[in-house]
Automatic annotation (TrEMBL):
<dbReference type="InterPro" id="IPR038765">
    <property type="entry name" value="Papain-like_cys_pep_sf"/>
</dbReference>
<dbReference type="InterPro" id="IPR025660">
    <property type="entry name" value="Pept_his_AS"/>
</dbReference>
<dbReference type="InterPro" id="IPR000668">
    <property type="entry name" value="Peptidase_C1A_C"/>
</dbReference>
<comment type="similarity">
    <text>Belongs to the peptidase C1 family.</text>
</comment>
<dbReference type="GO" id="GO:0008234">
    <property type="term" value="F:cysteine-type peptidase activity"/>
</dbReference>
<dbReference type="InterPro" id="IPR013128">
    <property type="entry name" value="Peptidase_C1A"/>
</dbReference>
<dbReference type="InterPro" id="IPR001212">
    <property type="entry name" value="Somatomedin_B_dom"/>
</dbReference>
<feature type="signal peptide">
    <location>
        <begin position="1"/>
        <end position="39"/>
    </location>
</feature>
<dbReference type="Pfam" id="PF00112">
    <property type="entry name" value="Peptidase_C1"/>
</dbReference>
<dbReference type="GO" id="GO:0006508">
    <property type="term" value="P:proteolysis"/>
</dbReference>
<dbReference type="InterPro" id="IPR025661">
    <property type="entry name" value="Pept_asp_AS"/>
</dbReference>
<feature type="domain" description="SMB">
    <location>
        <begin position="50"/>
        <end position="97"/>
    </location>
</feature>
<protein>
    <submittedName>
        <fullName>Uncharacterized peptidase C1-like protein F26E4.3</fullName>
    </submittedName>
</protein>
<keyword id="KW-1015">Disulfide bond</keyword>
<keyword id="KW-0732">Signal</keyword>
Amino acid sequence: MARGGRMASLLQFCLPHFGVKSIWALLFLTLSIPLLVESRHCSRRPGQKYWDQCCEGRDDECTYPIADTVCYCDAFCNRTIHDCCPDFWEYCRGETRPPEYTTPRPIQVICQDNGDYYKYGTVLKRNCNTCTCVSDPMGSSKYGSWSCTNFACVLRPEHINTVNTQNYGWQSSNYTFLWGLKLKDGKKYRLGTMEPGPSVARMTSLRVHVNEILPDFFDARSRWPGMIHPVQDQGNCGASWAFSTTGVASDRLTIHSHGGINDMLSPQQLLSCNSKNQFGCEGGHLDRAWWYMRKTGVVEENCYPYSSGQSKIKGNCMVRRSAMHTRNIRCPGNGRMTKSVYASTPPYRIAPSEREIMKEILDNGPVQATFEVKEDFYMYKDGVYRYTNLARNDPPEFRDTGYHSVKIIGWGLDLSKAGEPVKYWLCANSWGPEWGDDGYFKILRGTNECKIESFVVGVWGKVNGKQVLKNRRTKRRLRHLRHIRKRYRLLRHLI
């Protein structure tokens, strides 16, 4: 029977027996009981006491079903009246329900990234930029968006992919130690050589007459085995000016002394003590570095080890100038005393000629070269580097460049995909063996790529005969001691 039919039958039965007033009372009770039951929400939540059923603060799980949605029994609903369950004020607060307002409960903004969801205000790191989850400006959606900074980064995945999939003649890589670094910081901490000033740039070049046929391939490591020192790592300090200077000086001292001197010289001393008109980890001038090498000299790396790559500062000079002149130096690294100080003659500039540079390396050893580092050089892995200009349509800050100095230790020929010969210089960088081809790179030869042939310097080491003899005697004594120890261990094993 329909709801209306049942009500009519009830009235026909009750009217003769109870009268009109009684009938209206019965109707009121009949209609009120469901409303009273339906108004119980917070009190019907699981829990024995009201403090289990009513929640303090904001708790979006403190709800009870009502119609096709939910109402709230948390204290936060008291700020937005329409969220609260009907019995919240009486049951949870013991108060009379206040009048209704229309302020909505704030939308819980969420942002999405690679299938994951993040709350409003979350900050993510994307390469060298940061992205913050922000709400919809109109406030009409729970889905927010990411507001990101737009700095130029040292490594750009889209450029790495382009170089590796197209025919540029070289391959690139995503280096962990460079990821997340801004391009301006890469220039600040990974380069460090000041562009040669006008007076230095006008320095007269030493002319070399090349009448012979030069080889197609040359590597100083093969010509002078054990005399070319390994790749170093300047870390987060713009000290290429110091590393390339001590690197070339170390190699040439070893070559010119025929192996009698084979110590790696200290870039840290040059960085910390050569302070006049220099800027430490923020860059330096090569002419000032060679001036210090000529006038004062430096100790070996083991005596004064490198530390600025971690601290990002040049640090205080730990050797006194007077001690350098008297050859009575206490090593900052191990506290021992040493008399070994290594110096050089004044540097000489080599003409910006491919063949003359080759002849100088062939005869005298590695040379120091200054070149302009473009934004894509940081991602070099192997092959013959040439500038790609992939950022040509980007703002200027995405194409920021800086000067860097390295050792050129040889040259060679490579083949392009079309089978054509590609000439290159073989260079030692100062970013550690994890970068490039075990720390080395090849760059286009004969075209002054990135100004690599514009300012090339050579030098002669000051070789002291007594010092060479002393070093040779020391090495012979060490070899003799190692031989004795080896024989002793063998005899002990046999016994």
